[in-house]
């Protein structure tokens, strides 16, 4: 299993400043009609929750940690994204902390949104829908949620009261228990909930109804004090008597109620997960008698350490329950199933047959798929006992016979995308570099890449991706990996070979890379995950040997001139200075200075086919252009803000490539196209297609006018074409 990094955490005051609204000064041109679709990979992120509606057949929802929520469409056998309308200013709300349905009103759906609870992130919000998520009403909260933090696979933390559909409960991480008496429109602190809110920790981990009694898990207990509470009147809460204690029952992760046997099943771990769990257990409570029974399928111990995560009861078969292990790396995670109330269990992994032909990346560069990891979401279809789903850190598996499993993931895309290339020739119109799943060669946009993750070597997260402009068959990539951190391709990205050698910095600080126009020189920059910057290195023999380039600004992204192989450029975000090399990257000298500075979110891009034509996206400072190889820059008057920029095929009658950017020409941050060298812009996305944070990469297609590829932080690769 490759080592995994989780998604981009947009931290710090610089990001907060980037997302601050600025005064508008430019009018936006009339918006053309665009059709937006998602390039198919298939999942790739952590599915943190699955919820079947208990009284409506084939109605199900899924939530993710950074990629929004989805509704299952049984007619098309696809997941429909529900919150793509959330835009730039609401990037934090693409993380779904919890979801809830109303058993009495099947069209009602509630989402609790908010990815981070740190000071630099905005407060959470509640979305409520009367039409299964087609339209929404929104309530902004005064508290923060943490859908991409530890414990994100626990829950659900949102619950419709079984006695009154107008009453909702929301468990928070740091602010205790909230209650709404008007279907989620307004919220207030719930009275009588015993544990005091904490400044750090997990707070409420789960809410579940067992008949008319409500239960709440508390994740901040020390293993000896109560961590499960209940109320029978919605006002007075008390610790559940006789509940399990100790390390293996420190944190209640999830709970499910068997209404036939009137038993509540609770999974526990010694940490909230998904990482860090090494002990856990499963217990059931006979609610009429108050008797607890330890029904743990397998006890963690020795080298086989893990916790327990998901739990689901079969609505049609009393005593039939499925639970999941989590963070079990030695023996690999599994689902356990019982048909006798936990007296005996069978591991479904032991008989599982997997078919990942629709999403080949799930082989992770090997021959066989894994059962999965980070399994904290499990669901059984209440109308089909053999239809079981479980979420992992990369996909959502389903079965109809408890033996044959395949990704049930169509339509659900959660990739955090970092790099995009659209080659000017060859089979593929797109090559991507992403978090967790490395680099992919997209032969088709409507099917998951047949080669899966680029191998030889396999990377977890891609940090660099570049193509030789005059030799497009030559592509290089860099990233985080256990068996090498750089590779090259001689066939346009279909197959790869590792660099024969790599600098010592590469393993702990792989950064962006550039190839000059003919592919004869490589420049590799090094940046540690904590932001520490190191000297760049140069290779003139395809990565066989490397030498340090002391004059290159540390940590900068190297940019190759697309026409002249002797020229490289770099933008030093610390100083606001542009540097250039005229000797193939051996030495760099300072050119323009006094440009905006402050962090590493600026993007310097070279216009294709032209020497010395450089564009600098300077975030809220706007857009700058140089036509003299970086000696001087002029500010582009049409842009209020520019976050990332790329080029595509020119419009008919134009001799300059179409320009695409994420930025603002007026009041809104959006996706724009210019066909006249940035003299004017048209917005090409719409209010239904915004996808939160989209500031990392954008590129047009050099062969298809109007087609643009957009990197998102959690909604995969979006591509648009004129309708």
Automatic annotation (TrEMBL):
A GO term for molecular function: hydrolase activity, acting on glycosyl bonds
UniProt-listed GO biological process terms: polysaccharide catabolic process; xyloglucan metabolic process
Keywords: Carbohydrate metabolism, Glycosidase, Hydrolase, Polysaccharide degradation, Signal
Signal peptide annotation: 1-26
Record InterPro entries: TAT_signal (IPR006311), WD40/YVTN_repeat-like_dom_sf (IPR015943), Xyloglucanase_GH74 (IPR052025)
Family: Belongs to the glycosyl hydrolase 74 family.
Protein name (record): 1,4-beta-glucanase
Lineage per the UniProt record: Bacteria, Bacillati, Actinomycetota, Actinomycetes, Kitasatosporales
């Amino acid at each position: 299993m490759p080592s995994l990094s989780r998604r981009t955490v947009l931290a710090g005051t610089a990001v907060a400043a980037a997302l601050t609204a600025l005064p508008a000064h430019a009018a936006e041109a009339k918006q053309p009609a665009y059709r937006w679709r998602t390039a198919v990979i298939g999942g790739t992120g952590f599915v943190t929750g699955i919820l079947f509606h208990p009284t409506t057949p084939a109605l199900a929802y899924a939530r993710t940690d950074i990629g929004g929520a989805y509704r299952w469409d049984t007619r098309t056998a696809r997941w429909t994204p529900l919150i793509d309308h959330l835009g730039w200013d609401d990037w934090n709300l693409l993380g779904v902390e919890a979801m809830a349905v109303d058993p009495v009103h099947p069209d009602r759906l509630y989402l609790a949104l908010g990815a981070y609870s740190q000071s630099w992130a905005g407060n959470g919000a509640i979305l409520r829908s009367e039409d299964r998520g087609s339209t929404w009403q929104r309530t902004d909260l005064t508290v923060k949620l943490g859908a991409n933090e530890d414990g994100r696979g626990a829950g659900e933390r949102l619950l419709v009261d079984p006695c009154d559909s107008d009453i909702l409960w929301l468990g928070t991480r740091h602010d205790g228990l909230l209650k709404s008496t008007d279907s989620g429109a307004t919220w207030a602190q719930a009275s009588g909930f015993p544990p005091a809110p904490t400044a750090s920790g997990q707070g409420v981990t789960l809410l579940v109804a067992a008949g008319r009694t409500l239960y709440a898990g508390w994740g901040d207990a020390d293993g000896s004090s109560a961590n499960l509470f209940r109320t029978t009147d919605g006002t007075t809460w008390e610790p559940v008597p006789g509940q399990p204690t100790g390390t293996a029952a420190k944190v209640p992760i999830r709970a499910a109620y068997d209404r036939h046997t009137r038993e509540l099943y609770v999974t526990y771990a010694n940490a909230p997960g998904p990482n860090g769990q090494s002990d856990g257990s499963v217990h059931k409570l006979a609610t009429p008698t108050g008797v607890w029974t330890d029904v743990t399928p397998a006890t963690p111990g020795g080298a086989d350490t893990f916790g327990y995560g998901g739990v689901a009861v079969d609505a049609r078969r009393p005593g039939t329950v499925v639970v999941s292990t989590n963070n079990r790396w030695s023996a690999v995670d599994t689902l356990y199933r019982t048909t006798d109330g936990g007296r005996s269990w069978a591991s479904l992994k032991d008989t599982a047959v997997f078919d990942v032909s629709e999403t080949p990346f799930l082989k992770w560069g090997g021959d066989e798929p894994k059962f999965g990891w980070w399994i904290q979401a499990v669901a059984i279809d209440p109308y089909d006992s053999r239809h079981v789903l479980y979420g992992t850190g990369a996909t959502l598996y389903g079965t109809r016979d408890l033996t044959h499993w395949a990704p049930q993931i169509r339509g659900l895309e959660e990739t955090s995308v970092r790099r995009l290339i659209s080659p000017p020739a060859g089979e593929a119109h797109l090559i991507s570099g992403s978090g967790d799943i490395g680099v992919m060669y997209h032969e088709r946009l409507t099917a998951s890449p047949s080669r899966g993750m680029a191998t030889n070597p396999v990377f977890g997260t891609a940090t660099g991706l570049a193509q030789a402009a005059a030799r497009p068959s030559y592509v290089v990539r860099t990233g985080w990996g256990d068996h090498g951190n750089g590779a090259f391709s001689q066939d346009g990205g279909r197959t790869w070979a590792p660099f024969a050698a790599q600098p010592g910095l590469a393993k702990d600080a792989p950064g962006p890379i550039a190839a000059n126009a003919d592919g004869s020189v490589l420049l590799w920059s090094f940046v540690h995950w904590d932001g520490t910057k190191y000297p760049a290195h140069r290779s003139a023999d395809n990565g066989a040997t490397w030498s340090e380039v002391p004059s290159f600004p540390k940590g900068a992204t190297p940019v190759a001139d697309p026409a002249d192989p002797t020229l490289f450029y770099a933008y030093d975000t610390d100083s606001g200075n542009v540097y250039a090399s005229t000797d193939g990257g051996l030495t760099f000298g300072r050119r323009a200075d006094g440009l905006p500075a402050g962090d590493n979110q600026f993007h310097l891009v070279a216009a294709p086919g032209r020497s010395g034509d450089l564009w600098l996206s300077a975030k809220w400072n706007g857009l700058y252009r140089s036509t003299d190889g970086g000696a001087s820059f002029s500010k582009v008057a049409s842009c209020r803000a520019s976050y990332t920029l790329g080029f595509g095929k020119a419009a008919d009658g134009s001799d300059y490539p179409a320009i695409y950017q994420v930025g603002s020409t007026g009041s809104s941050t959006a996706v724009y196209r210019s066909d006249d060298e940035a003299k004017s812009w048209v917005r090409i996305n719409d209010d239904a297609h915004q996808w939160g944070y989209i500031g990392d990469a954008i590129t047009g297609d050099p062969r298809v006018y109007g087609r643009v590829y957009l990197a998102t932080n959690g909604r995969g690769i979006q591509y648009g074409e004129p309708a």
